[in-house]
Design brief:
Elements: H1 2-14, H2 28-31, E1 51-52, E2 54-55, E3 63-66, E4 77-79, E5 82-86, E6 91-96, E7 101-107, E8 121-125, E9 128-132, E10 137-142, E11 148-153, E12 163-166, E13 169-173, E14 178-183, E15 188-194, E16 209-211, E17 214-218, E18 223-228, E19 234-239, E20 260-262, E21 265-269, E22 274-279, E23 285-290, E24 294-300, E25 303-308, E26 312-317, E27 323-328, E28 347-351, E29 354-360, E30 365-370, E31 382-385, E32 392-395, E33 401-405, E34 408-411, E35 413-414
Parallel strand pairs: 1-28
Antiparallel strand pairs: 2-35, 3-34, 4-5, 5-6, 6-7, 8-9, 9-10, 10-11, 12-13, 13-14, 14-15, 16-17, 17-18, 18-19, 20-21, 21-22, 22-23, 24-25, 25-26, 26-27, 28-29, 29-30, 30-31, 32-33, 33-34
Amino acid sequence: MIKKIAILLLPFFLISCDGFGSKKVKNIVELTPQLSAESNESIEINDSHIIHGSFDYDISKAESYIITKNKIVSEPIFINDIIYTIDDKGTVSAFSRKSKDTLWTYKIANKVGSSNYTSGGILYNNGKLYITNGSRFLFVLDSDKGYELVRKEFPDIIKIKPVMLANNVILLQTVSNHLFAFDMNKSKFIWQHEGIFETLSFAYHVSPVVYNNQVIVSYSSGQVFSLDAKTGHEQWVLNLFEQAIGLPSFEPSTVVCAPIIDGTNMYIAGSFDKLLKINIATGSTIWQVNANDVQSMGLFGNSLFITNNARQIAAISTNNGKIKFVSNLKKSLDLKKIKATSFASPFITKSNDAILLHIIAKNGEIYNFHLDNNGIFLQEPIITQTSKEIGYAGVIPSGEIYLTIGNKIVFVRKKL
């Protein structure tokens, strides 16, 4: 009994770093180890990595559309001038920027007897939408008319966006660490793979990555597998988290931001204490950096930019993993006033020869750093506030930058 009580109280001891019995509880920003610069290597940005055009911070004047009546809860997709979204009531919407009108809506929630959904995603392929929305179901809709073509129930909840493998074979990953390769034409499973079952659910999940004949999948157990795309057989496994002996696993350790592929290499980071550059073919580590709780990444030229739970932005050398630029993503340096937030992937714009690095926070703050003539971003950012809360932010194929705010989508790049 004493042992059980000690285990239950352990998290409360761990979050207090002011000594035994302290009344202060530190937040995640204070608890996450800070990164420090250790290299003077310059930051070289390739023109192909730059978005040409300025960032429109006054979103009240930016191009925006109300897409649905409810909150958008998954990353929208943009096909030509059509925007496809899912809201928290299980409604899929198709909106035309050209006609500025909703083309159709389809409420998939009615089909499974629930009215509240979170996460999931939309995959477009050959005139069809493959949709997950935090239920056990995969829905396939006609992208032009919005009617349902297929509905398939899986063994557990799917919070991850579907991935197209090949020849109408869809990859679907459940919260119980199962990955399924399902042939939509033949309506049968091609193969499946199972990771270690975790008793705790995790809020963040990353879709599998398809590269040549490999499928790279990460599980909440902290394991990353390379699987043969045709058979699902394991090629290599990478253990990202080694649990201390005798300590219970109170929280899953997993990849929480999309891995980045660069040639034959891949960068992996997440809710653990490492950032790794690995060889995709073998799974061998090229270099690793002690970087805790990485939220997002962006690769530009010879630098990998990351954000973390300590509310920092850092540029890491792709050559050797050395940190060459670090700055705070905080309005105040008083940690007592800082609240945790999450950050979208960094991006870089160029307008009138000025190069800027932008980081968008979920709380509506946007941090902007200027690149000087010596290839170093200035330490102090320009900070703007756009909204109380931003759901998703990203760059669409046309090069435009979008934000989702509640039930709206806002385009914040001024075209050249």
